[in-house]
Automatic annotation (TrEMBL):
Keyword entries, A-Z: ATP-binding, Disulfide bond, EGF-like domain, Glycoprotein, Kinase, Membrane, Nucleotide-binding, Receptor, Serine/threonine-protein kinase, Signal, Transferase, Transmembrane, Transmembrane helix
Domain Bulb-type lectin: 22-157
Classification of source organism: Eukaryota, Viridiplantae, Streptophyta, Embryophyta, Tracheophyta
Classification via PANTHER family: G-TYPE LECTIN S-RECEPTOR-LIKE SERINE/THREONINE-PROTEIN KINASE SD2-5, RECEPTOR-LIKE SERINE_THREONINE-PROTEIN KINASE
Catalytic activity: L-threonyl-[protein] + ATP = O-phospho-L-threonyl-[protein] + ADP + H(+); L-seryl-[protein] + ATP = O-phospho-L-seryl-[protein] + ADP + H(+)
Coiled coil: none
Residues spanning the signal sequence: 1-23
The protein's name in its UniProt record: Receptor-like serine/threonine-protein kinase
Localization per record: Membrane
Membrane topology term: Single-pass membrane protein
Length: 789
């Protein structure tokens, strides 16, 4: 019989094995130098000891191919993100599968793409300490520790939009909102200390500078979020002031807490039960500021800004959040993001207005009213006293008036009303039943109104009878012709249908399922182009030939023979082609197929009948002023899609008139996008300044061989923009819009990258939804700028 071990022996065994047990746990918690994670891999995160938090790669919602380097709550449904890698310029790198983050020997976290190109790294080490390890802590803080046990770097010192209990925000720290709920680039709001006050301000998405400060959050020098969930501001005397009152904190210790500056500008304290009874649960709002976000940036003295919902929109605070709607006659610029503002549903043309500024054909318009609504700014005319009828009539006959706001006469001391006429873009729209005593009158186009030029003749009785007679004759003749042709056409179609079935079966076997791209053989494309006989153009990527596919519903195609392509094998080429094939937008040239046979690399695009913008601009038949405006708008929409909306963001690297093609309807379509990665290294560079030269892309003489941008800016500053319309009567009649276009162009070629607007902002400027401020000089003296678009 074996006797049980004595208590002394058990104690000795536990004492001896305890260091081994602790060592095992520590090795599981700590991240050693050289350890790495891969996006989309089986082990894509480092967890905290309790498992509450995880550091690693999170897939972007609705896009399983892109990932974000982040920290999130690992035990909460939805895995709420509380930190993400972001540069000091506000860009957040989204990465693809197999991207890597590694703890290096220099004490940095380094994020690289599958090609080993560096995308982001943690801040530089500030001391000479040697790195020991890194760890994801149970507080939600990820730290890199030195051998002396000090923290070399930690996420708590570089917050993004969220702070957690035990975290502090001092005068050097700030919180920046995200651009949208699932877009983690820096957004439109910032929370920071400034001259002893904790302030919330808006960020100009154009200049990236703060404005519209909101002060009532409190005075002090440090924001403290203690481990019980209380948010306090430490004032000058050192005593804490509760920002979130203590009586609103539910069950300290029983909940997770976070304080997040939302993309809508509301700073909110949330709680989540650690052990929900039903296994689910959700984040609850404990406290938030400001209480009325719509009114917050209206009552201040600054007259600039868009308000929480963007230009031409109306903001209503519901449960502490801004609810954005478009007024009558307007619709959202982006249906997926109502915070970007609204645009007018009908286009306003110069021919709508008389030279004196009055409206032509006022019977085309009517008014829709909205009570308790106001636009505090955008005034250009005031009528007092004014009745509602007088207010309507004044706005109706004024071509610049988009909306008139009437104050209720019964609330005025003298019993008369005041009418404020406002023009586009409408700023800081606001709706509130309790505090607004005004009614907004929106001038909208009647549903049955036609957008015809005033000099277009309207059909009278005589013209109508003549049209009926002509139509009758045509119908009778066509009926006979159609009957005789039907039999012949039917037999031809039957033969073509049988042939088409055979062709479709052969083509279907060579289609890429994900992108619907067709794989061609080199011989097929050689026959389609008649031996590459008819050349359409040449560029940095290769030569383009006209081809014809008899077996396809698309007869004519453009076949691009790629030259000097990186020879990295079939898989790499098809990967890049697949990315291009997944981009679909009306302002992008569509890729139909490709050839990847031996050394041959060819791409097959839809054929653009009107050629390139370059040949169109400087040909014999120049586009009209309106056509040029439509082309410019189309290009910006295409670039906006490439930069922000497609699954894989694409930087074109070679935008120029030769790469803008025009279809039968003169719709602008961008070509050669997504090809930069296919070129050999000597053909591509990643630049932060202006790419290429600032040469003369005009066909008239300029003074003293000046560089185009410099000459144009001099003309703008000197008030001589008329030089641009020397032989253009349409442009001379629209100098206001010409000046707007020039200002947009100067912002786009700014030497300092942070000053350049996004393509979405450019598109909104061209739509008239965003005001264009006066640009600074776009280039420093004695320098050559470079840019990427």
């Amino acid at each position: 019989m074996i006797s049980p071990p004595s208590p002394t022996l058990l104690f000795l065994l536990i004492f001896i094995t305890t260091p081994l047990i602790f060592a095992t746990v520590k090795s599981q918690r700590n991240v050693s130098v050289g350890d790495s994670l891969y996006a989309g891999g089986d082990s894509a995160a480092w967890q905290s000891p309790s498992g509450d938090f995880a550091f690693g790669f999170r897939p972007i919602p609705d896009d399983e191919h892109q990932f974000l380097l982040a920290i999130w709550y690992a035990k909460i449904p939805g895995s709420t993100i509380i930190w993400y890698a972001s540069s000091n310029r506000g860009s957040t790198p989204l990465v693809v599968r197999n991207s890597k983050v590694e703890l290096t020997t220099t004490g940095h976290l380094v994020l690289t793409d599958p090609g080993n190109n560096e995308l982001w790294r943690s801040r530089s080490v500030t001391d000479d300490s040697r790195v020991s390890h890194a760890a994801m802590l149970d507080t939600g803080n990820f730290v890199i520790t030195s051998e002396s046990s000090g923290n070399i770097w930690e996420t708590f010192k570089y917050p993004t939009d969220t702070i957690l209990p035990t975290q502090e925000l001092d005068v050097n720290g700030s919180l920046s909102s995200t651009l949208a709920e699932t877009n983690y680039s820096n957004g439109r709001y910032q929370l920071r200390f400034d001259q002893g006050s904790l302030i919330l301000n808006q960020i100009d998405m154009f200049t990236k500078k703060p404005y519209n400060d909101y002060y009532p959050l409190g005075a002090g020098s440090r924001l403290i979020f203690n481990d019980s969930g209380y948010i306090q501001i430490q004032n000058s005397s050192g005593s804490p002031l509760n920002l979130a009152p203590a009586n609103v904190i539910p069950r300290p210790g029983s909940n997770y807490y976070r304080a997040t500056l939302g993309f809508d500008g509301v700073f909110t304290l949330y709680s989540f039960p650690r052990n929900p009874s039903n296994g689910g649960g959700s984040w609850s709002v404990v406290w938030s500021r400001p209480e009325d976000i719509c009114q917050t940036f209206v009552d201040i003295t600054a007259t600039l800004g868009t308000g929480p919902c963007g230009y031409n929109s109306i903001c209503e605070t519901i449960n502490g959040r801004p609810n954005c709607t478009c007024p009558p006659g307007f619709s959202f610029l982006d249906e997926k993001n109502p915070y970007t503002g609204c645009k007018q549903d009908y286009a306003s043309y110069p021919e709508d207005c008389n030279p004196d500024g009055s409206t032509i054909e006022t019977d085309q318009f009517e008014f829709e009213q909205m009570s308790f609504a106001d636009f505090p700014y955008s005034d250009f005319g005031i009528l007092h006293p004014a009745t509602e009828l007088e207010c309507r009539q004044s706005c109706l006959f004024d071509c610049s008036c988009a909306v008139a706001v009437l104050q209720d006469p019964s609330l005025s001391p003298d019993g008369t009303g005041t009418c404020w006429k406002k023009k586009l873009p409408l700023s800081n729209g606001w709706f509130n039943r309790d505090s607004i005593d005004r009614t907004a009158l929106f001038k909208v186009l009647k549903s049955n109104a036609s957008r015809k030029s005033p000099d277009t003749p309207q059909p009278g009785g005589e013209n109508r009878n003549q049209a009926v007679l002509i139509l009758s004759v045509l119908l009778g003749t066509s009926a006979i012709f159609n009957f005789l042709s039907f039999a012949a056409i039917s037999s031809i179609l039957f033969c073509l249908y049988r042939r088409k079935l055979r062709d479709v079966e052969s083509i279907r076997s060579r289609r890429d399922i994900d992108t619907n791209l067709r794989s061609f053989t080199y011989k097929e494309l050689e026959q389609a182009t008649n031996g590459f006989k008819e050349e359409l153009g040449r560029g940095a990527f290769g030569t383009v030939y006209k081809g014809e596919l008899s077996s396809s519903h698309v007869n004519f195609v453009a076949v691009k023979k790629l030259e000097k392509v990186v020879q990295e094998g079939e898989r790499e080429f098809k990967t890049e082609v697949k990315v291009i094939g997944q981009t679909h937008h009306k302002n992008l040239v569509r890729l139909l197929g490709y050839c990847d046979e031996d050394e041959h690399r060819l791409l097959v695009y839809e054929f653009m009948a009107n050629g390139s913008l370059s040949s169109f601009l400087f040909g014999k038949l120049r586009p009209s002023w309106q056509q040029r405006l439509q082309i410019a708008s189309g290009i910006t929409k295409g670039l906006t899609y490439l930069h922000e909306e497609c699954g894989t963001q694409i930087i074109h690297c070679d935008i120029k008139p030769q790469n803008i093609l025009l279809d039968d309807n003169l719709t602008a379509k961008i070509s050669d996008f997504g090809l930069a990665k296919l070129l050999i290294n000597s053909k591509t560079q990643t630049l932060t300044g202006v790419r290429g030269t600032k040469g003369k892309c005009v066909d008239f003489e300029m003074e003293e061989e000046a560089i185009l941008t410099e000459w144009a800016y001099d003309c703008y500053i000197d008030g001589m923009i008329g030089k641009f319309t020397k032989d253009d009567e349409e442009g001379r009649n629209d100098l206001g819009r010409l000046e707007m276009l020039l200002k947009v162009a100067f912002w786009c070629v700014q030497y300092e990258p942070l000053l350049r607007p996004s393509m979405r902002t450019v598109s909104m400027m061209l739509e008239g939804a965003v005001q264009v401020p006066s640009p600074p000089c776009p280039f420093p003296m004695n320098s050559i700028s470079k840019i990427i678009v």
